[in-house]
Structures are given as C-alpha cells and as structure tokens.
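ok posting inputs for the farnesyl diphosphate job
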Amino acid sequence: MAWFRKKEPLAEVDFDHLPRHVAIIMDGNGRWAKKRGLPRTAGHAAGAETFRSIATYCKEIGLEYLTVYAFSTENWKRPPEEVNAIMGLLKRYLLEAIEQMERDRVKMCFFGDLSPLTAELRALCEQTKEISRHYDGVQVNICLNYGGRDEILRAAQTYAMDCQEGRADPNHLTEENFSRYLYSNGVPDPDLVIRPGGEVRLSNFLLWQSAYAEFYVTDVLWPDFSKEELRRALASYQHRNRRYGGVTLS
Ligand code: FPP
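and the output
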C-alpha cells in the first residue's frame, strides 16, 4: 500500500473544475495529541480548529458541498470525558456559527440520528440549519451520531412503512427513489473522500453515497491538515480517470 500513501506533489489545482462534493473523515486527533504528550481532548480541540479553517477555505474556493465525519454511531464507546469534550467543541462551533452566519452564508446540515444528543445541542443544530436554509455559500454537512449502515437501515425501514401505507410501490424502487430516504437527500454523492491519519478504510462513512467516490488517503493527521494538503487532494482528484464501471475508449 506504500504507493497509496506517498505524498502527492503539490500540483496546480484547476479551480474552475473542482469536485462538487468533498467528504472528510477527520482522523488522527488522538495520535496528534499523544505525540505531544497532551490529552486526546486537546487533539480534538486542534481538530476543530482545522475544521474551521478548511470549511472557510472550501467556501473561498467555491466548493459546493463539504461533509465531515464528526461523531460516529460507534464513538459513544469512547470514555465519557472524550465524548463530552467533542460535544463541547461542537456546541462552541455552532454558537460561533450562529453569530457569523449572516456574514459567512454557510449552509449547515446534519446527517445522523440527533435524538441521543442533549436538548441544547439538538436545538443548536436545528437553529443553525433553520437560519442557513436559504444560504448559498458552501453547504457543510456535519455527520453526528452517524453510521452508514444505520442510515441505510433507517431508510429501508421508512421506505417499508411507506410501502405498507401505499405511499411507495416496491415495484418501482430505483436507486434514485431510495436515496431520497437517506440523510443526504438532495445532496449529490461525494466525488472525493479524504482520509487523513493514514488508515485506508471507510469506517462506516457514507457507505451508499461513496459508491463511486475517489478516495484520497494521507498520513498527515487531521489537526495538521492544511489548505495545502487539501489542494494536494484536489489536484490528485483532478488527475484521476473516473469511469463509473465503464471503460475509457482511446
Ligand atoms: C477521530 O480521530 C476524530 C473524532 C472521532 C472526532 C472529530 C471531532 C472533531 C474534529 C471536533 C469537533 C468537530 C466539529 C465539526 C467542530 P481519533 O480520535 O480517532 O484519532 P486517532 O485515530 O489518532 O485516535
């Protein structure tokens, strides 16, 4: 797998032909903190800063959609201090986002089952989503208590109920119809999935939506992920030949 992880050259990005949708698995916060003799929570705090700067950069370059994996359905298994610290960082980010929304015009959405979150956090998610509903800057989708399998199961359940009650007909089920039942309803599939932190796996992230996404892995840990790293990923994406299962005729 060494070829996969070699550092991509810092090639020019063609900003007129960006992918529409970039999704990021923000991994490596814990290792970043450990390397510095800091608690894991310090890694998440640094990761939240990186998220701010990358989201702002995505807005500046005119990316349409950015989706980040902030908290998975499996992350509840972490020690309560760590879970609380991540929830605290999210709360802080959402409060700031509300203050700056009019200026930034970032559209905020959430993918995941928000019901186990505190009432306060749920209300902040709802508020940011509602205020930014008509904004035209980058759309930032934060995956919170999100799992790809969980998303597909919930969609299947709602779809089955719609069939039972006559709102849907299983004889006419298509991929397009089914994808309307997912959290990502209305959002185009990600073109590029970036995973910092060096692990080469999807970790239950956007399983349905990533079917034809290009994958970019770097050893750089998320808190160290910079605009330059994002440009590397974008340039690498622009050199790929996407065939969607077909062939390229020369
Ligand atoms: C994975 O790294 C990271 C997480 C589970 C949490 C991500 C959360 C943030 C970046 C902060 C809050 C987010 C927002 C949107 C404000 P890890 O801890 O598994 O890293 P490791 O693999 O090095 O242990």
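notes: The beta strands are 21-25, 65-72, 107-111, 139-146, 192-195, 214-217. The CA atoms of residues 196 and 218 lie 5 Å apart.
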